[in-house]
Amino acid sequence: MSTASETQTIRTACNRDCPDACGIIATVENDRVVRIQGDPDHPITQGFLCYRTSRFLDRQYDPSRLMTPLIRRDGVFEPATWDEALTLIVEKMTTIKAESGGAAIMHYRCGGSLGIMKLITDYFFECFGPVTIKSGDICAGAGEAAQIKDFGEFDSSDFFDLRNSKSVIIWGKNVYVSQVHLLPLLKEIRKNGTRLILIDPIHHRTADLCDQFVQPRPGGDAALALGMARVLFDKGLFDPLAPEYCNHFDEFGATVESKTLEEWSSIADVPVETIDELAETYADRPSAILVGWGMQRRTNGSAAIRTVDALGAISGNLGIPGGGVSFYFKRRGAFDLSFIQGAKVAPRTIPETLLGPGILEASEPPMRMVWVDNANPVAMLPESKTVKQALESREFTVVVDSFLTDTAQCADVVLPTTTMLEDNDLMGAYGHHWLVESQPVVAPPEGVLTDYEIMQQLAQRVQLDKRANGDFGWDVERWKTCLLSRVAEQGASLEQLRLGAVRNPQAPSVLFPDKKFATENGRANLIHEIAFEPPAVSEQRPMLLSAMSTEKAQASQWADPIDGPLEATVHPNAAHGFADGELARVQSEHGEITVRLNFDDRQRTDMLVFPKGGHFKDGNCANALIKAQETDDGGCAAYYDTPVCLLPLE
Ligand SMILES: Nc1nc2c(c(=O)[nH]1)N[C@H]1C(S)=C(S)[C@@H](COP(=O)(O)OP(=O)(O)OC[C@H]3O[C@@H](n4cnc5c(=O)[nH]c(N)nc54)[C@H](O)[C@@H]3O)O[C@H]1N2
Ligand SMILES: Nc1nc2c(c(=O)[nH]1)N[C@H]1C(S)=C(S)[C@@H](COP(=O)(O)OP(=O)(O)OC[C@H]3O[C@@H](n4cnc5c(=O)[nH]c(N)nc54)[C@H](O)[C@@H]3O)O[C@H]1N2
Ligand code: SF4
Ligand SMILES: [Mo]
């Protein structure tokens, strides 16, 4: 952008796993980034960054950043040259493939970066193996599966379409923490008369933004949605045309009628009058539902989203401006990813949620090597101890990261990689439809490579499938051009992205116009078989561990150092015999951790609210307690269904 003698401002983008995919303006002085700010010209970023990324320079210049490859020798990490590390890796991967086949090697990647270039690591392993990969998605799998079943597609109407809504139900979403760039729009529409309603079992700051706060039982959403549907049917407030554009309308109706409103109210733990009022508000079209990511991370998570989808469909709120049931924006929709085949060609998949037990149990062939990049599964996947044990006990584990994380500590070889301010990539967003480009604003420290450069190095040393055909010799510019080939002619070329964020020209302004869905016969599929599990809490373990995003961290990447045990928020009545601020143990069937209690009488007594992302080595990791179990569909992790109790310190 502009250049003074030594001060430069350079436009780049945030690649963190976040719905917002912000534009960033970095100020660089003498090859050092001195400031990062939100891009004022990005229509969603609007010139500000979140708490965690505003403090990113501490991470960028953290003295504990990895600057050289590490090889474990006699149990101890020793610095190594790239040549030593890559020679060892190539020797191991080629031997293991020759002896046991690609299935004996696993490649695992998660949310370290949302950059599309990161998929080239997947491509490398596909051309080398193919190898074992994960199935499902611990983040959003249950919701995606639900919307694919119901609508044949998971995407949303335009971000700013909420300006057309009379009411917006924020169904389980902590906007102040996990999607801060939605706040200006919500504040604007509320000022202009849109009614905002939050439905969330946890009380948090987003409640203050809303006209109404409804606090159901955790996992009570399906019953609440069915109760609302019951009111729509009883009062004739549903769309009379719905039977024409919905499959299974009658069966859904029968499910709704199978219980009285009082019964739905009792399962959801929401008063009858509240359900009635919610339904009336929602039926006054157009009303939008913004579905958060939390409610699908439960054993019945996919069914819960399907029920909300069905409510949206019968109310007539789909396919109209100001309506919609928005769970996700198709962040990869603009990119040409046809070069990757994924699960279609993988010799084996392991459900992501069950990564730890899955690796340990794999046989014929056993899992001999694991490659982890852009992920910290020991801290972030359920049953941390099992994940750690699985990685440590492999013949060969490689981790690519910028820090010696809980996961990197399990490796035989650790490869140091760039931060987002040194990376070169393209991003779409899962909270809106704008595309951004990132570029290195400073050069990485000597000896630190991007994920792509690491793949390029390896590609020169191993035999790849003919399909690769020199692709790893391409520079990043050529890859970016290729990735954008589907939208370049429509106004989203690399040159155009270089000038600033561009809306995906293929993204809809209103999803499913004329109520034409992307399903086989063009109609929405309504859920009609729903199992109601009683809440998993018991007298012995009376609270569900709710380890949620905190503004202080991006998953396990904390903006500030963690000092001592993390805070667990509970209703005082759920902590008899304890005092506010006291240390206590939280115990599940899988283990225990020490926490500092924070009393809050706005919480339910059946929930213990705790930050996600604490480090396992420090005893702060919620996943040390959480059971590895998949959701009903889509291979998401049921993170929030582990019952726990409080115990005094020993
Ligand atoms: N208990 C509980 N657990 C959860 C959740 C929860 O709500 N509760 N949420 C889940 C969700 S939604 C998600 S998406 C996952 C997130 O899980 P992860 O994606 O595993 O989370 P991070 O801790 O961010 O780990 C990413 C790692 O990638 C590294 N990294 C950053 N940039 C790069 C890069 O360019 N290249 C490479 N190679 N590495 C890089 C970072 O340093 C970091 O160590 O956590 C899940 N875990
Ligand atoms: N600061 C920060 N922001 C983040 C992240 C982070 O680690 N830190 N992580 C990022 C990631 S990986 C993702 S996937 C996204 C989304 O990340 P999330 O933090 O998962 O997003 P939310 O949509 O806010 O979903 C959490 C909300 O769901 C609610 N909830 C939990 N159970 C239920 C239930 O049974 N019913 C209902 N109705 N609500 C429930 C919780 O109370 C909480 O308010 O955000 C990203 N944003
Ligand atoms: S983490 Fe999200 S909100 Fe924060 S700067 Fe990055 S994209 Fe924006
Ligand atoms: Mo996520």
Question: Could you estimate the helical fraction of the residues in percent?
Answer: 25-40%
Number of domains: 4
CATH topology of the largest domain: Rossmann fold
CATH class of the largest domain reads Alpha Beta
Ligand inventory reads: ligand MGD, iron/sulfur cluster, molybdenum atom
Global shape: globular
The average pLDDT is 97
Helix-and-strand structural type? alpha/beta
The total count of strands amounts to 29
The end-to-end span amounts to 59 Å
Q: Determine the strand fraction and express it as a percent band.
A: 15-25%
- Enumerate how many helices there are, as a single number: 20
Report low-confidence residues grouped into runs of 5 or more: none
Return the CATH architecture of the largest domain: 3-Layer(aba) Sandwich
Tell me the Rg in angstroms.
25 Å
In short:
The protein is of the alpha/beta class. It has 20 helices and 29 strands.
